Amino acid sequence: MTDFAAGDSPAQTTSTEIDVPPGMLEPAQALEKATGSGISQPATAVATATFHQNIIVNQRKTGPGLFVRAIWYLFVGWWLTGFALAFAWLCALTIILLPVAYLIVSKIPTILTLRPRSVETEVAVDAQGNISVTTGGAAQLPFWQRALWFIFVGWWACALAMSVAYVASLTVVLLPVGLMIFNRVPAVMTLQRN
User: Fold this and answer.
1) Is residue 24 one of the residues assigned to a domain?
2) DSSP 3-state assignment of 139?
3) Do the domain assignments include residue 57?
4) How confident is the model over 82-103, as pLDDT tens digits?
5) What's the pLDDT tens digit per position in 165-178?
6) Is residue 75 part of a domain?
7) Domain enclosing residue 30, as ranges
8) In terms of Cα–Cα distance, which of 192, 194, 182, 191 is closest to 88?
9) Which candidate, 35, 1, 36, places its Cα nearest to that of 17?
10) What's 25's DSSP letter?
11) Contact 182/95 with Cβ under 8 angstroms?
């Protein structure tokens, strides 16, 4: 440490060592004090680096296993999905039963293969260190925009997407593609954001 006496200029300085107990020093400073190695500055910068907290959220998979889902698909899922799609599209055309159609369309992957819907989870840490976990869907567009989309595009684009997805799901090889399209049918129908 450098002390300036009254009336001294910086050119006239004297050096004074102060003994600080090792428990009060940063680890790198204590190491420098013991060995005289001169590594205090870089190591102190590392020791005082910002702490980043990792948050891991595990969601348990629900629903039946692969074997039960395959049996369901082979004996029930493929034909029940066809009826559900036709009924949903007819309900959508009536406008009054549009909520029923939307409910059926959003459940198509479950009807086809007993696959449960995905749940979106967001985790945030604020400046005070509070952790907030939000589960649910994304923010949706205004109702009037979604209604206009359905009237001019959604009703026929939904029928086309459901037909392509259904044909793809009937071929076991393209079943994943069919499920992927079925998951996006609500967005095609009413611009729903997942």
Assistant:
1) yes
2) coil
3) no
4) 999 999 989 988 888 888 988 8
5) 999 988 889 988 98
6) yes
7) 2-47
8) 182
9) 1
10) S
11) no
